[in-house]
Amino acid sequence: MFDSLRRIIQAVNAAPDLNTALNIIVQRVKQTIGADVASVYFRDADGQLVLMATDGLNPAAVGMVRLDDGEGLVGLVVERAEPVNLEDGPAHPRYRYITETDEEPFHGFLGVPIIQHRRVLGVLVVRQRAVRRFAETEETFLVTLAAQLAGAISHADASGGVSRLLQEVGGTAFTLKGLSGAPGLALGQALVVYPPANLDAIPDHALPPGKVEAERARFRQALAEVEDDIRALSRRMSGSLPAEDLALFDALLLMLSSDTLVEPTLRRIGEGNWAPGALRETIRDHVRIFDAMEDAYLRERAEDVRDLGRRILMRLQSDQPQVREVAEPTILVGEEVTASHLAEVPTQHLAGIVSAKGSSSSHVAILAHALGIPAVMGVEDLPVNRLDEQNLVIDGYRGQVYVRPTGHMLEEFERLVGEEAELAAGLEELAALPALTPDDVHVPLYVNTGLLSDISPSLRSGADGVGLYRTEIPFLIRDGFPGEEEQVQIYRQVLEGFAPRPVTLRTLDIGGDKALPYFPIHEDNPFLGWRGIRLMLDHPEIFLTQLRAVLRASQGLNNLRLMLPMISDVGEVDETLELIRRAHRELAEEGVAVELPLIGVMVEVPSVIYQIPQLAKRVDFFSVGTNDLTQYLLAVDRNNAKVAELYNSLHPAVLQALAQIVDEAHASEREVSVCGEMAGDPAAALVLVGLGVDSLSMSVGSIARVKAVIRAFSLARARELVSTALGMEKAVAVRVLLNNALEEAGLGGLVRAGK
């Protein structure tokens, strides 16, 4: 029985849509268990249980039968969130007979919940004509299958929930739910981005009129090029492999020229889909056939088909332009939108970002903040194949995406977008004003940046300087480590551009989610691995080059502050300080006179919280990186969408940690800044000011919003709110407290759509 489990999951994963996936489930389950009926019920947005697929009941009842929450035996399964196994279902007091299903002959009942992230998505049910309780092995099989289906269904090429499935049949609007990545509201057309040679990520794309033959020719050319590649590979390997292994290349060539591969793809192109999308469907059909085979050897051939599909796709993609032309507001959509994808759309046309992976502290979400565009991250069941060129509205405040909005819904969004523009225009007037509370407390606001192009916008925003310059960005966009002279030029432009305002340069912080293409790091848990100062101390030749460049760039300006990332103990600081002094001595010996800058450490690793008095004897300031500090305190991978909802910088433990950091640092006469994304959140910034944080650093797009909050709330009022927040037990209660305070001050538009 359990040998069938893997094949069922594979078939579901390969299904082209949710409806097909559900029908595969009921057919295979009924066959495997030997039941008389197998059915799947899903909960819709209103909590009703809808019969979505069945093998054994009246097929006309699919989509028509709806049970209220808690109704019938299926409702009992949802209520208990555990299996219900009955030898005679109709004899149970909760049983409800439904005439539309023609279920009268059935007695044995077994229902198991399909649960994902603690939420019951639906119920998998099997029925038997006989009066009997299903065996323990049958129940265990169904429980195991349901647990895997919760994830497998979401990874099928499916639309997701019941409501969306029903709505998409009519092509009407539907809503996707994710996490807030960057605030704001935007309307635009979806542009699906995808990694190279990834067939599963390829979207459908309609061909313009008259382009069918050209697209067919492009596909045939790709086939010819792949054929040449395989023949060349076979020749190269002929001296190393036995004849029976070389036969694999002959098999690939046969597949490449077979009518079952070529003709269906050409037909799909003729129906109006572009070559990559047509190829995706053909390869998927072939893989599904192999996956369903009983013979283990033949099942493994499915991977050969996938490999062939990837080879053809690579050829098709090689002749595609890297930058797609757009002339209207565009929203990037993808399984995992990356920083490099942003370059595919001119900045003036980029309206927003929607990604199936990531969270508010993902690198691309941080860039969205910097660009001032909304982002929705961690969208489960994102139907990327169906979204290309669709009209979208994204709400970055609530983490929602609205697909194909029309009528009154569209009118309301257009009104809100207009109000957003008015709010932004009003905030621009704050640029020339200081970040001063009504009781005359100045809170310096700095920018987080890593791009030279940010200098002018940052200065126009009224920023007091740079609180975090990410020196890794110049490293990320090159093919190799930049030399000392090149680094001097980059850092000098930043320091000169902001002089005499302070500029805090963070030493190279690679690792984690910031890998260099020419210095790959492969680790099981990169966020707990070789990154930041750990890597630099292990490679002093790279570190000393950067330190020399930073010191040289500051000559005569004296506005440099140096910050060390990923510090976990005083020993790392001692080693780093020795390297800084060494670089300083080397420059002095070469006749380059520079002053040693102020040096600080980032508070990201929880161990530092308990070593602040010791570290204060060695460094001049502290800067809290709330992104990583929150991640480590809560044991939540901030880029993992499955647990991203647990990541919350307003968690009571995070607030308590911040309070301790500020108190300890001030007791040691050291300043504390916050340079994580928390500083750019208007509500969270109110907490930070109340805690006594000396300065805040954020993306340039957040400066005006945070300044508006500071100018509206006295320090005394901020302290009152913090006192209340520190006594709360849940992050959601803290968020409500702060958002309500902003609403009362007339600043609700800073944390929601509209003014």
From TrEMBL:
It catalyses: L-histidyl-[protein] + phosphoenolpyruvate = N(pros)-phospho-L-histidyl-[protein] + pyruvate. Signal peptide: none annotated. The keyword Transferase applies. The keyword Nucleotide-binding does not apply. InterPro entries: GAF (IPR003018), GAF-like_dom_sf (IPR029016), PEP-util_enz_mobile_dom (IPR008279), PEP-utilizing_PTS_enzyme (IPR050499), PEP_util_C (IPR000121), PEP_util_CS (IPR023151), Phosphohistidine_dom_sf (IPR036637), PTS_EI-like (IPR006318). Its main location: cytoplasm. It comes from the Bacteria. Residues 17-163 form the GAF domain. It is an enzyme of class 2 (transferase). Pfam families: GAF (PF01590), PEP-utilisers_N (PF05524), PEP-utilizers (PF00391), PEP-utilizers_C (PF02896). GO terms for biological process: phosphoenolpyruvate-dependent sugar phosphotransferase system. Keywords: Cytoplasm, Kinase, Magnesium, Metal-binding, Phosphotransferase system, Sugar transport, Transferase, Transport. Its EC number is 2.7.3.9. It is found in: Cytoplasm. GO terms for molecular function: kinase activity; metal ion binding; phosphoenolpyruvate-protein phosphotransferase activity. Its cofactor is Mg(2+). SMART domains: GAF. Gene3D superfamilies: 3.30.450.40, Phosphoenolpyruvate-binding domains (3.20.20.60), Phosphohistidine domain (3.50.30.10), PtsI, HPr-binding domain (1.10.274.10). One of its GO terms (cellular component) is cytoplasm. PANTHER family: PHOSPHOENOLPYRUVATE-DEPENDENT PHOSPHOTRANSFERASE SYSTEM, PHOSPHOENOLPYRUVATE-PROTEIN PHOSPHOTRANSFERASE. Belongs to the PEP-utilizing enzyme family. NCBIfam families: PRK11061.1, PTS_I_fam. This is phosphoenolpyruvate--protein phosphotransferase. It comes from Thiohalobacter thiocyanaticus. The lineage of its organism: Bacteria, Pseudomonadati, Pseudomonadota, Gammaproteobacteria, Thiohalobacterales.
